[in-house]
Amino acid sequence: AEVLAESGGGSVESGESLRLSCLVSGYTYSRYCMGWFRQAPGKEREGVAFIDSDGSTSYADSVKGRFIISQDNATNTAYLQMTSLNPEDTAMYYCATRAGDCYLAASWYNIWGQGTQVTVSS
């Protein structure tokens, strides 16, 4: 079975950076999309960044220019490099994946990690 495991969350101050990791195991799709999502208390889960099996990336407007998604196929790990963090970025961050193309909505993704908390103080 496919398993995703996030790590790298923590508490930082405004302007600082964090890198999240998502280790993928048991995943065998040749064409896939890997996405990072976040959910703040009382808010819906939102897509933040996506990368597909061809390496094409896309980002939510709120993180463009600050976050970078990448993947290392040799280690089966996806990353989310987050810079210039601000308190609005505070949320539980999840990685998720699906076979096929990337879509923005979380409902398209059927395999999820357990999440890692990111807290940004002003």
What descriptors fit this protein?
mainly beta, 0% helix, globular, 52% strand
Reconstruct the topology from this structure.
Blueprint: E1 3-7, E2 10-13, E3 18-25, E4 32-39, E5 46-52, E6 57-59, E7 67-72, E8 77-82, E9 91-99, E10 111-112, E11 116-121
Parallel strand pairs: 2-11
Antiparallel strand pairs: 1-3, 3-8, 4-5, 4-9, 5-6, 7-8, 9-10, 9-11
Fraction of residues in H or I helices: under 10%
Strand count, sense and closure of the main sheet?
Answer: 7 strands, mixed
What is the number of E strands? 11
Strand content: over 45%
Can you write the helix and strand succession as a string? EEEEEEEEEEE
Structural class: mainly beta
Unreliably modeled segments? none
Please give the oligomerization state of what you see. single chain
Distance between the termini: 40 Å
Radius of gyration: 13 Å
Coarse morphology: globular
**What is the arithmetic mean of pLDDT?**
96
| Continuous helix count | 0
Summarize the entry for a quick read.
The chain has 122 residues and is an all-beta fold. It has strands at 3-7, 10-13, 18-25, 32-39, 46-52, 57-59, 67-72, 77-82, 91-99, 111-112, 116-121.
What report would you give on this structure?
This protein is mainly beta. 0% of the residues lie in helices and 52% in strands. It has strands spanning 3-7, 10-13, 18-25, 32-39, 46-52, 57-59, 67-72, 77-82, 91-99, 111-112, 116-121. Strands 2, 4, 5, 6, 9, 10 and 11 form a seven-stranded mixed sheet that branches. A four-stranded antiparallel sheet has the order 1-3-8-7, with no helix packed on it. Strand 5 and strand 6 (57-59) form a beta hairpin. The chain is globular, with a radius of gyration of 13 Å. It starts with a strand and ends with a strand. The model has no long low-confidence stretch (mean pLDDT 96).
